[in-house]
């Protein structure tokens, strides 16, 4: 089919589109049809090295010398230009990832939000002054760390890249990113727009390629100063070990198995809407998606039947046709989800709705999975413990609030949690005791807005993205002591 906008998969080094030195390429597949729509270079260690050396040069000779307010103005201009290219970016993201076009538009709006938010902070990265008495002045400055390396996954390319790029650039760092082999086109277009908006050459380099090759080369590079990794737990562990050899500090933003806890006095209308929509957003491929429902047994039947009704009514279709839910990103991802569903059935949890690849006419070649609801999911089973990263939700009943708390905290992850009810004492008890980086009460933000700090407890990672907190990742403290007597 003809694409409405140009799809250019080439990498960005020194502000120019380039191929890999090897000229090897990776096919870019439309997950709605299984067809190849473009290619992107298979970057390798020499490409990563070229990008890092260029970034280092841009840091020392260019970006470090730009005044904070001037950096702010460039970032504001990037936000403006992203807005001007809103439809093109959403089109590319929807085609590449498979997500419904309107969700892709929301992702573009978040991208604008990130650049605006951190543009506003660029000249407010304050230090402190420490009183030591007459004769001595002591103060701290927060300096940029230098070359910020960022490894980005495929599920929200625009949001997750701008979540790291904007604070890093605002604080005075340069960025070299390795984007995901499964979806990178919208980030490459974002980089192009950033250059059109006045970003100096080399300040944002983007390398494409496979994780084990280009991603690994970036993690082990001696000339990066910090590494932000967003992706799965096993890869995060691998990246952290590799970075340790160079004493490179890392931020890990990993997976989740986030719960929604429903007390019997909760607003059931509201919570069932939320639960069904959160797990089908981006076909369940959201790190902060709620994939476990922990419900008071007295309202379990009502909650299950109403969520099932909603999940069963979800219309599947090609992302660009704006369905309720699109395909998952790749055949590999689809097969992993189907295997997890099989394991759920083996554990004797009951499939209430869905449970298989979609057989809908016209979708045969795409990677479509029916929204799937399990009832009476077993504590400790695979589907209860492991991140499935697809439209699969499991329900577990509780009889006592302490049992609910134990279930909520009963996985290795701790990204987001949500509690629904109106007993103030119980709600506060849960917000205190839940092990998660974000807790929502009578709502669910799937990561929340740009201003809310976001990150993991336990094996969901460490460090915080978003909000003012993210600037901590991208700055380091220098203490200056002056004797004037
Ligand atoms: P992934 O770990 O397979 O890949 C993430 C990135 O790492 C990709 O760019 C990949 O190419 C790269 N990579 C793979 N192997 C590598 C290696 N050996 N060395 C260096 N880089 C390597 O994850 P994914 O499947 O792309 O993304 C899904 C995962 O990301 C889920 O677990 C999800 O929860 C998590 N995620 C977390 C957040 C968050 O903010 N906490 C946000 C989005 C996604």
UniProtKB/TrEMBL annotation:
Record-linked Pfam families: Aldedh
Position of the signal peptide: none
Residue ranges annotated for the Aldehyde dehydrogenase domain, each copy included: 23-480
Active site: 253
Keyword Oxidoreductase among record annotations: yes
Keywords on record: Oxidoreductase
Entry keyword annotation includes Magnesium: no
GO molecular function: oxidoreductase activity, acting on the aldehyde or oxo group of donors, NAD or NADP as acceptor
Family: Belongs to the aldehyde dehydrogenase family.
Protein name: Aldehyde dehydrogenase
Natural source organism: Lentibacillus amyloliquefaciens
């Amino acid at each position: 089919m003809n694409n409405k906008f140009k799809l250019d998969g080439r990498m960005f080094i020194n502000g120019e589109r380039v191929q890999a030195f090897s000229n090897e390429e990776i096919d870019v597949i439309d997950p709605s049809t299984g067809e190849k729509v473009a290619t992107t270079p298979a970057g390798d260690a020499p490409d990563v090295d070229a990008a890092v050396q260029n970034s280092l040069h841009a840091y020392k000779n260019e970006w470090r010398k730009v005044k904070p307010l001037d950096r702010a103005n460039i970032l504001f201009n990037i936000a403006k230009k992203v807005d001007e290219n809103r439809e093109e970016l959403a089109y590319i993201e929807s085609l590449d990832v498979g997500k419904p076009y309107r969700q892709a538009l929301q992702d573009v709006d978040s991208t604008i939000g990130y650049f605006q938010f951190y543009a506003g902070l660029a000249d407010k990265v304050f230090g402190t002054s420490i009183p030591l008495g007459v004769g001595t002045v002591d103060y701290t400055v927060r300096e940029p760390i230098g070359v910020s390396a960022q490894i980005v996954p495929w599920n929200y390319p625009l949001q997750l890249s701008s979540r790291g790029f904007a604070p890093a650039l605002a604080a005075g760092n340069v960025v070299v990113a390795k984007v995901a082999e499964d979806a990178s086109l919208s980030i490459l277009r974002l980089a192009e727009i950033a250059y059109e908006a006045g970003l100096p050459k080399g300040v944002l380099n983007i390398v494409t390629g496979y994780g084990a090759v280009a991603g690994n080369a970036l993690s082990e590079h001696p000339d990066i100063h910090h590494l932000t990794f967003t992706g799965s737990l096993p890869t995060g562990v691998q990246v952290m070990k590799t970075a340790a050899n160079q004493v490179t500090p890392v931020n890990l933003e990993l997976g989740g198995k986030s719960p929604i806890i429903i007390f019997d006095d909760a607003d059931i209308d509201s919570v069932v809407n939320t639960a069904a929509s959160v797990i089908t957003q981006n076909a369940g491929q959201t790190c902060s998606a709620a994939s476990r429902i922990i419900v008071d047994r007295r309202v379990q039947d009502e909650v299950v039947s109403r969520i099932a009704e909603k999940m069963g009514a979800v219309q599947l279709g090609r992302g660009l046709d704006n369905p309720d839910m699109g395909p998952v990103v790749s055949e590999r991802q689809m097969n992993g989800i189907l295997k997890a569903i099989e394991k759920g059935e083996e554990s004797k949890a009951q499939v209430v709705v869905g449970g298989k690849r979609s057989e809908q006419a016209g979708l045969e070649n795409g990677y479509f999975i029916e929204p799937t609801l399990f009832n009476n999911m077993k504590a400790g089973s695979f589907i209860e413990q492991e991140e499935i990263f697809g439209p699969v939700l499991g329900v577990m009943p509780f009889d006592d609030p302490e049992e609910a708390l134990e279930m909520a905290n009963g996985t290795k992850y701790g990204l987001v949690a949500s509690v629904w009810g109106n007993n103030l004492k119980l709600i506060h008890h849960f917000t205190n005791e839940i092990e998660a980086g974000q807790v929502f009460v009578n709502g669910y933000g799937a990561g929340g807005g740009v201003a809310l700090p976001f990150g993991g407890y336990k094996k969901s990672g460490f460090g915080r993205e978003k909000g003012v907190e993210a600037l901590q990742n991208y700055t380091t403290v220098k203490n200056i002591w002056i004797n004037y007597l």
